Amino acid sequence: MKAKKSYYGKFGGQFVPETAMNALIELEKAFEKFAPSKPFKKELEELLKNYVGRPSPLYYAKNLSKHFGFEIYLKREDLNHTGAHKINNALAQALLARYMGKKKLIAETGAGQHGLATATAAALLGLECEVFMGEVDAKRQALNVYKMKLLGAKVNEIKTGLKTLKEATTAAIQSWVAQIENVFYVIGSAVGPYPYPQMVTHFQSVIGKEAKKQFKKLGKKPDIIIACVGGGSNAIGIFNEFLKDKSVRLIGIEAAGLGANTPYHAATLTKGRDGIIHGMLTKVLQDSLGNILSVHSISAGLDYPGVGPFHAHLHDTKRVEYYAISDDECVEALKLLCEKEGIIPAIESAHALAYLSKLRVKKDTRVLVNVSGRGDKDIHTIQHYEKGKIYG
Ligand SMILES: Cc1ncc(COP(=O)(O)O)c(C=O)c1O
User: Residue 141: CB within 6 Å of ligand 1?
Assistant: First the structure.
């Protein structure tokens, strides 16, 4: 196990087989060397600006504000190239892989957004790409599977267990360990063994840095920031810059599925206990014997029984509040944003938007919601949504 810097309070660490340790050490050294270097920063900034389309707009949602009776601002990550925040991190990690001389990227994906972002970055940077995805997710996110293949990636559908994100991540880790010399594992959220949570936080922090600047330009500051939490990358990306400012209330929203008090949810911070999953000590949904529980959510991107270790720490230290939103509430919020603002958000982002209806705040309160992605991939799911449906 590594020294203290790999931990967030008691969470984090490197719980991996011996064979993976060298790769983690190599990655940590490369990240520390290249990420702060001038050529890397210049190349990444250029790509984020001209290829991804950053900065993403900060949009004052006038109609939604009127509906709820307080000020609502949306950080429009849905307008990024490939349709979500995932590209910020995938592109940066792919660039790092190229600086390290790696020829192939592998990635896990749930909603397909991270797989799509990695396939895109691989095509751009001339790298081979293989994506691991559970069969259930591949079915509900068929459009993204097709896009990944079109971009030249191989998509490996995993048929074990619940056939969703947990199994895809396990398969990706196994494949990585088996060919560790040549491949770079692009993790899609702020999860996994150190240095991944740190690296993903660093690359996604561009969201919060921009938002802070954009508010400053308006001569304002947000009072509350809301983001959805799967593994936790878009949430930590927008929170990180505001963590020290205690006057800003930070709220993370997990998936309550059919209800956090039923067996059908993915509310890890609400219901989980300390445990180890995918190389990290964090909060895990588990039974009394430590077996990892099945998860359920309408959202393939939030359907995960673990969470990034930074969030586990922020939860226990109470710097961030975490709540869970059900499938029904998410669908209602998604439709409301469509009708009020003409924006179709991703199902994941709609969980964050749904919390707006629970807030009881004064009318001059400024609430910033991270719209982590666009809803194109989810149209089929919404069209065929039935109350109480179990997704896996
Ligand atoms: C649009 C969108 N938002 C949020 C998430 C959840 O991931 P994270 O918690 O890492 O932001 C996903 C995952 O696929 C996603 O596609």
Answer: no
**pLDDT tens, position by position, 72-115:** 999 999 999 999 999 999 999 999 999 999 999 999 999 899 99
Give the whole-angstrom CA distance, residue 127 versus residue 281: 32
- Testing ligand 1's pocket by substitution, the residue of 140, 189, 283 carrying the most ligand atoms inside 8 A of its CB is 189
For residue 86, give the nearest of 173, 239, 190, 196 by alpha carbon: 190
Query: What are 385's two structure tokens?
Result: 């949504």
The closest residue, in CA terms, to atom 12 on ligand 1 is 301
Residue 127 Cβ contacting ligand 1 at under 6 Å: no
What per-residue confidence (pLDDT) applies to 392? Answer: 55
Q: Is 372 a catalytic residue?
A: yes
Q: Which two tokens stand for residue 146?
A: 């097709």
Burial pattern 138-152, b for ≥16 Cβ within 10 A else e, equals bebbeebbebbeebe
Q: How far is the CA of 117 from the centre of ligand 1 (A)?
A: 12
Q: Is 86 a catalytic residue?
A: yes
Tell whether the model's pLDDT for residue 3 goes beyond 60: no
Nearest CA to ligand 1 atom 4: 348
Contacts of 276 (CB under 8 A, 6+ apart): 15, 282, 284
Query: What is the number of alpha carbons within 13 Å of residue 372 lying toward its C-beta?
Result: 35
Query: In whole angstroms, what is the distance from residue 218 CA to residue 209 CA?
Result: 15
DSSP H or E run through 171: helix 165-178
